Amino acid sequence: MAHPLSRRHVLSLGGATLILTGIPAASYAAAVVEVDLVVYGATSAGIVAAVQARRMGRTAVVIEPGTHLGGLSTGGLGMTDSGVKESIGGIAGEFYRRIHAKYAGTPVTPTSPARFTFEPHVARAVFDDLLSAAGVPVYYSIRLSTVTRAGSRITEVAADNGQVFRAPMFMDCSYEGDLMDRAGVAWTSGREANSAYGETINGVQLRDKHQFTLPVSPYRTAGDPASGLLPGIAATVAPNGTADTRIQAYNFRMCLTQAAGRIPFPRPAGYDAADYELLWRYIQAGYTGPFFTTHSVGGGKTDSNNNGAFSTDHIGGNYSYPTASYAARDAIFAEHRRYQQGLMWFLANDSRLPAAIRSATASWGLAADEFTTTGGWPPQLYVREARRMVSAYVMTEHDCRRNVTAADPVGMASYTMDSHNCQRVVVDGLVKNEGDVQIGIPGAYPISYRSIVPSSGQCTNLAVPVCLSASHIAYGSIRMEPVFMILAQSAATAAILATDAAVSLQQLSYPALAARLRADGQILQWPIPTPGEVILDNAASSGVTRAGTWLSSTSISGFYGPDYEHDNNTAKGVNRLRFTPALPAAGAYTVYLRWTSHTNRASNVPVDVVHSGGITTRTVDQRVSGGQWVSLGSYSFSAGSAGSVLLRTENTNGYVIADAVRFVAG
């Protein structure tokens, strides 16, 4: 995409390309560049991080090892995997409002609608606007040579062109985690065993999604094991839940169109129809498609993704990618492009295929007005996961399911726990895909600040909001572009606040960070509290007192927070639990109680509401109305902690549940 010189200037510096946005070139063209924040990776996260630093009045640069700006958000992923859209705040939310404004031709405002489907060039235009308004320089073709540390701090990073970047704070916003690795921060790759974190859907997972549903032989000569296996197929599969080093498959998110001016799918150099033998056999067995998705993003174009047992995912082609050199990654990129272009050529042209499949595929082509410098082909490989940091807080399946709740949230995630297939295996003489997991979650959940900064002592001035600390399956939920932007803004905010306070990222006051994040529109709690609303969960660290014995459980759904508690249907009259909220102001509040329902619950639970006028006792039936806020009435309360709600168990006829209370002013 062209960059008008009236808006910005482009310089070439020893092989690096620098885009200057309103900042004198001499300040950044030097051999040594010094700023307040150096951001590695011009992904959507990297852009947002630098913009946030500039909005906080500090200088920042983005250094990018490649030549593409915007990562997947401008690289073909135009149908945003957003989950609970209302939980997307801050600059991420602004980005999607700016997308809508671009299409509508209207100014963007804090109340503008958001749009989550878009053409790649529109996303690029929005990022250009953000960078230009903030005055953020972007350096391209900056590949790390050395990372220098003094004790636990990075002092500078040097590029292979000899240029040096210095700052008090650094951020790794790449999909690969190279800066994190060079800085000596602990990381992992591949899949943990379920036993590592007490999970249920990590490790090897032989399941039914994107699976061969018709019999296909894995052998070079169909049906003959003695002929050997076709390339890319493993002879056996480990038990579900077993750890390994495999990662979920990569592909390109193609921007396709059926417009008359579309670019036909090219036949790549090195094309070999034998690479698609499994697909040919699947079609012979009776499979008729679909072979890829065609989700509309506007302008008559699509965001096209993997779909089915044999599609655009190059399963097994990426195992070495996370730790590969830049040159080796370039080769992996090229191989993925050859594979996927060859697939589309095969589907559109191979004379053995039914005419209906060939004509349906050939009715699509690459959009001629997208990715114009690469022939309509996406310049960004979909790196679904690479390295993942291992820090003081590892996000796991338990966070995704809200069985645990981070006490130091810096943003929300809400997408399905999603892993694409990781390998092809032989099961009972037939080929099967392994690794695809698609498990829903209850709703938006918080991401811990400790998961985006290294463990204390490893590196004190580096934040890692993309390759954050998470298990393989939790990362499958977190790894969405809106979440990366959210976490990057929070990380940049932390970096600037820590610099101002002269403390490490690990020592930064979380209440101070949270206050600034909320002021900047970040969402740190879900559901979002309404004005005058106070919710107190049974798992809260203060405000909940117990008598007798209460047991934690998650066996019945509909609870608020990470769990609920019950009296085990014993010690009636002895077991009691009191919620004592801290109310911000005196006045009338409607009081709500929440529980989970079951036939074994008590139908006659006495609940004492302690208010300014005395004590009012209500009786609730916990066999019904579970998973919702049930009103106990409206009462007057003093400010502070004079009021409370007491659950009693005397003479109750079943399990008594304590989950959460809610006070709503007015």
Automatic annotation (TrEMBL):
InterPro entries: CBD-like_Golvesin-Xly, FAD/NAD-bd_sf, HdrA-like, TAT_signal. Keywords: 4Fe-4S, Iron, Iron-sulfur, Lyase, Metal-binding, Oxidoreductase. It comes from the Bacteria. GO terms for molecular function: 4 iron, 4 sulfur cluster binding; lyase activity; metal ion binding; oxidoreductase activity. Residues 534-664 form the Golvesin/Xly CBD-like domain. Transmembrane segments: none annotated. PANTHER family: COB--COM HETERODISULFIDE REDUCTASE IRON-SULFUR SUBUNIT A (PTHR43498:SF1), FERREDOXIN:COB-COM HETERODISULFIDE REDUCTASE SUBUNIT A (PTHR43498). This is Xanthan lyase. It comes from Rhizocola hellebori. The lineage of its organism: Bacteria, Bacillati, Actinomycetota, Actinomycetes, Micromonosporales.
